[in-house]
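Lab notes, practical 5.
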Amino acid sequence: MIPLSTRMRPSGLEEFVGQTHFMYEGSLFYNSIKNKTFDSAIFFGPSGTGKTTLARLIAKEMDSNFVEINASTTGTKELKSILETAQLRFSGLMQETTCLYVDEVHRWNKLQQDSLLKAIEEGIVRFIGSTTENPYFSVNNAILSRVRNIYEFHRLTTDEILVVLKRTINDTEKGFGGLDIRYDEDALRILADMSSGDCRVALDTLGFIIDNLGEGEKLSKEIVAEAMQRQTTFYDKEEDKYNLLSALQKSIRGSDPHAAIHYLARLLQGGADIMMIGRRLMVMASEDVGMAYPSAISVVTSCVQAAQMIGLPEAKINLAEAVVLLASCPKSNASCQALYAAESDLKHKKIDDVPAHLMDSHYSGAAKLGRGLDYKYPHSYGGYVTQQYLPDNLYKEGVKYYKPTNNGSESSFKKYLEELERIDERNKKG
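Output from the prediction step:
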């Protein structure tokens, strides 16, 4: 049986859902497909976000011969045969370029990747490679330099997956439109939410549920929980997730690791995904801990990345480490408050231009315009020299945005900045 996720692949660009940061009507990406000028590219992102689907749509829209292979099962010999056939098509009367889609391209070694170079460079193939790993680490530089762009695919939002699920239920050709499926709106949203941005998971779970619903039975949140083999208490009320995330952040901000771990456990038990929690923790590391312990953002980011790589249930351990660290270390929001104050001035004050001595002087004629003149290079003065950096009106007002606390590591930064202020005062007095 063909999986529902395969059956429901969109037949045209107008049906494609997600990736609206680069794929929308009128975007350069969209226009390049419609104008048949789309060039080689790499699609990078998590599974179930539409990489293969979009590659197939591109080939269809451009009327290209489409060849799809997976790097984990296709070796150099098979690739050579594909390229030879593509060469014959390109050299024929029609001079047809083959659209070659290589899924999991990161699995090829350097030699296999390099075998594509000539075909891409000469236009024999229009190459689209997809990977779940960062291409800047997993794909050869020679390939990267020959593709037009690297497009990063994001996990689909709950609302985007919900659009696909409803379309599937109502589609009379490929979906379940002829079955008069009854469902609770909340149940469908829970299914979309619990799929963690993976549309394939959402669709195939929906297919499993509908194929096995009892006669007259309604698709409910209890059935979704059974199908996903996860609890749905977290999803009983939409506001629950935000209440628990809020309680987690406020417990961390209040330096209570016991309460923070409690709310983490409730989030995980309720079915919150790793990135939902991870994103909030990374924000806290800068918003609530900040300069009091600057290493927090690095440690927390590493914990979240490790949790993603390991996956649940063991990922809980990585998240717990991040939560305990954030709750147990000194706190300061001085850096984010400095930003908010600067943004407020930009909204409510007329700000003078950048001082002339700070302007870019790396072009012909800059000196004639007075750009960059009289700038003092701090390293030539032992690391610091008294000099104006703020725009004139803010400098004259004596504006200070960053107001460091005495908490944790920030106290040492505060002492250093206060010493620099004393140096400035002495220099002003002569």
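Observations recorded by the TA: The beta strands are 41-44, 65-70, 98-103, 125-131, 149-152. Residues 344-429 form a domain with the post-AAA+ oligomerization domain-like fold (CATH 1.10.3710.10).
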